[in-house]
Amino acid sequence: MKHLLKLFTGIFLLLPLTACIGEDYDVGVPTAYLQEVGIIEIQLTKANISWNSSSGDEQQSIDNIQEFGLSQNRTFVAPNQKAALGFKENEENGGDIWTDPKITASLWKDGEKTTLQLNDQLEFHFPTNEGNYVLEVKFMNSHNNAQYIGNIVIQKPVITQSDRKLPAYASMEMPIIKKVTPGSDGIAFDSSYEEICWNNCEEIISHNYSEIHSGNVEIGDQLLIDWSTVKPQPTEINLIEIDSENSKNKGIKKESIEVTDTNLVIPVDEEKVGSQYAVEFLWKDGDEIKGRTMLNFRLE
After folding, report:
1. Among 125, 221, 111, 127, CA closest to 177
2. Which is nearest to 82 in space by CA: 125, 34, 42?
3. Residues 79 and 145 in one domain
């Protein structure tokens, strides 16, 4: 009797496991997407496919993926722009999502391959070199593999509005500033963000920086300023140190920030404690300033 009970127990334990394994390999080819940090989602095109499941057998062979990729609709991104990959289950088969697939991503240009570094959330940064690339994404499990292609153009942001104007300031995303301490992902840091001029900057010559509330820091902390969600991206960025001892709070030191970056990390040391800074964002059409904003913060 005890042996019989053990036999039934083993069967009942095995059935759910067998069902899970069966479902895991019973799904069709997933749909792949390129996600620009939650702003837009672009479906990638299937290329070489070798996939067998009870949902159907799908096979496809592409001889020249670079030629095939460049024939797809172009997607424009900024140098060093952050993005992510996303996959959706084939809704027609009703199976579970795949278990522990291997996912890789690369860029191809003129026969040369650049491997993209993906984190656990499948996020990555495009390279800083401008040009037209073919994005190759591979999705593989123990039984099947699928390849996806995208046509990517990396170029510096430009103002593309027909009237040469920026979008309404109120509709623009603001840059984010966080204090990052050892072992933490960061918390919001006291700051002010202000519009200096917008779509009418002809008469703006100088700017007085007002005194602002200090944010608390300790030596070893870092300040992270992220403007990756600001669209369109600024064309010039400057870090300005403020002479807060002067009654007019004038800028005393200006450092240009690479426009190909979308974030700035400021390590906090003894020299920076007690200092006031501003990050100046400029949107230019040639030499003409179309927009100017300031992110102000003080360390205490």
Report:
1. 221
2. 125
3. yes
Q: Do 79 and 177 belong together in one domain?
A: no
Say how many residues make up the chain.
300
Non-local CB neighbours of 33 within 8 Å, separated by 6+ positions: 41, 42, 43, 44, 85, 86, 87, 88
Number of independent structural domains in the chain:
2
Classify residue 268: in a domain, yes or no. Answer: yes
Which CB contacts under 8 angstroms, 24+ apart, belong to 127-134?
A: 127/79, 127/80, 127/154, 128/79, 128/80, 128/260, 129/79, 129/154, 130/79, 130/154, 130/155, 130/156, 132/70, 132/74, 133/107, 133/108, 133/109, 134/65, 134/66, 134/69, 134/70, 134/107, 134/108, 134/109
Last residue of one domain, picked from the residues 114, 129, 154: 154
The C-alpha torsion from 258 through 169 and 226 to 280, rounded to 10°, is 50
**Which CATH number belongs to the domain containing residue 175 in this structure?**
2.60.40
Tell me the pLDDT of the chain (300 aa) as tens digits: 444 333 333 433 333 333 333 344 457 788 899 986 545 678 999 999 998 877 778 999 999 999 999 999 888 888 888 899 988 876 555 545 566 789 999 999 999 999 999 999 899 999 989 999 999 999 998 788 999 999 999 987 655 544 578 888 888 889 999 999 887 778 999 999 999 999 888 766 677 777 788 889 999 999 999 998 888 889 999 999 987 666 455 667 889 988 777 889 999 999 889 889 999 999 988 888 999 999 999 998
Find the domain containing 248 and state its range.
Answer: 169-298
20 in a structural domain: no
- The verdict on residue 192 lying in a domain is yes
Calpha distance 226→180 (Å, rounded)? 12
